Amino acid sequence: MTNLIDLTVLEAARGLRSGDFSSRELTKAFLDQIDRLDGDLHAFLTLTPELALQQAEKADAALAAWRKDPSSPLPALIGIPIAVKDVLCVAGVPCTCGSRILEGFRPPFNATAVERLLARGMVILGKTNTDEFAMGSSTENSAYGPTHNPWDLDRVPGGSSGGSAAAVAARMAPAALGTDTGGSVRQPASFCGVTGLKPTYGRVSRYGLVAYGSSLDVVGAFGRSARDVAAVFTQMAGPDPLDSTSVDLPLPDIRLDDVDNLSGLRIGVPQEYFIEGIQPEVEAGVRQAVRVFESLGAEVKSVSLPHTEYALPVYYLIAPAEASANLARYDGIRYGPRVDAETMWDVFRNTRGEKFGSEVKRRIMLGTYALSAGYYDAYYGQAQKVRTLIKRDFELAFQEVDVIAAPVAPSTAFRFNEHTEDPLAMYLEDVFTLPANLAGVPGLSFPVGFDSQGMPIGMQLMGPHFQEEVLLRAAHIYQQQTDWHTRRPQALEQVS
Predict the structure, then answer these.
(1) Helix axes 311-326, 382-397, angle to 10 degrees
(2) Quick one: pLDDT at residue 491?
């Protein structure tokens, strides 16, 4: 029998329905893989083996009943294990956001995205590592230690959803949830050689997501293929009365196998995404992938997104400003640990000073400055105006093309400590992903090759608002013709 951890989400779903194996057996296989590898990778912050096996046994009972009466309804992904980034609430399970300031916090409720997956019988393996409060591009900023890239343990997995991406790449979970504020699903997906979807802002409820930048945060999903990502995405998307920013639009029935070519699809390639300093192998890999799309029937044309160059400064004014406001609630009174002092103000100062990491402090200060009297109009206000121009660039481009193809990051996964002393260099790692968040459009990252060091190269497709199906379909057809997404990290054979 095929090793259970090598099954894709949909392969595992078929096996569960046919009775080839049980959800308990499947879940135990992934828990054993975590036990073997996570001491070296550190993809998980919290494991929930007892809870997972209980959920698996419940799924097995439902599957057994369905086999006796196949006419009864059965959720598509019942019994499938999944990992959850540790910024999404799971009732009774620690939620640290990679920060000491939330150490010991156990939320009494589930995030809506998690609740919907649980309601459909999926199994929670545990919570994955993240840059503190999702602020980072490498998962080096976690207060609990970094996650290592399964392709090379000396390199970062990307961030901030590095734990989720590494878990999927290392076959420790068939799928995982992440969040994307400025590229935090797509960039780690690229670095770890998996597929990751950032949906349209408002497509997936943010209720129960610990906020970083409220106008930018999106709950996304990782899998080994576009088909697997689509399966998870459709289970958690849709309007939510608990989230006023969720959009009340019907979710299409995403069918990826209806066509086997891309005839009629118009793909735009923005000149602004092929900048000086991009790793030549990354550019070559993306351009080769575009040629494959063209061979499958797509029409390729050049497009321009002229305000792309402003995306980085705009993001690092808006996101820290929102973070400054959102993180004001962590004061040693309501959540997590408290550093006692003689006065209330000293409690605030000491708790935040000791329990927040350096990157979080940096962004709080940047955001507070941008929002301060006398500077609001000059910085935050201006940034919002330019954000509108960036969004308009996408709207105009999508009048000419159906999707936009571009690199995910200027380079493949970099080594640990390479950017830690240079925050600007770290911020530049997100230069190709930030615009989609500012515009609110969906983006999908998937592997399109490897560099000379054996590190995955990722490409992203971006589409109009609420057109996730177009991105997933295009990537799926590409993945039917290539095998990059099936490659297994060699480092897995070297870890203890």
Answers:
(1) 120
(2) 65
Residue 68: Cβ within 10 Å count: 7
Q: What is the CATH number of domain 4-263+442-493?
A: 3.90.1300.10
Q: Is the peptide bond before 23 cis (omega within 30 degrees of 0)?
A: no
User: 266-270 and 81-85: which strand pairing?
Assistant: unpaired
- Taking Cα atoms as reference points, which of 33, 53, 126, 119 lies closest to residue 86? 126
Give pLDDT tens digits for 263-295: 999 999 999 999 999 999 999 999 999 999 999
| 129: phi then psi, degrees, rounded to nearest 5 | -70, 150
Quick one: pLDDT at residue 496? 47
Is residue 94 within 8 A of residue 46, CB to CB? The reply is yes
Whether the full predicted model's pTM is greater than 0.90, yes or no, is yes
Q: How far is CA 92 from the centre of its chain?
A: 23
Asked if residues 290 and 269 have their Cβ atoms less than 8 Å apart, the reply is: yes
CB of 442 within 8 A of CB of 465?
Answer: yes
Q: How far apart are CA 35 and CA 288, in angstroms?
A: 38
Q: What is the side-by-side strand order in the sheet with 175-180? A: 44-47, 123-128, 81-85, 175-180, 218-223, 195-198, 443-450, 456-462, 403-407, 266-270, 299-303
With beta carbons less than 8 A apart as the criterion, state whether 178 and 209 touch. Answer: no
CB 186 within 8 A of CB 49: no
Residues 6+ positions from 35 with CB-CB distance below 8 Å: none
Distance between CA atoms of 310 and 326, rounded to whole angstroms? Answer: 24
Structure tokens at 271: 């000149």
Q: What 8-state DSSP symbol labels residue 372? A: S
For residue 222, which amino acid is it?
Answer: F
* Residue 210 three-state SS: coil
- Check whether 335 has a pLDDT greater than 80: no
242: its two tokens: 């608990």
Give catalytic residue positions: 85, 160, 184
Which residues are bridge partners to 88 per DSSP? Answer: 209
- Angle (CA) 255-257-260 rounded to 5° is 135
SS3 175: strand
Confidence of residue 332 (pLDDT cuts 50, 70, 90): confident
Name the residue among 435, 428, 446 with its Cα closest to residue 137. Answer: 428
- Angle, alpha carbons 402-389-430 (nearest 5°): 75
State how far Cα 349 lies from the chain centre: 32
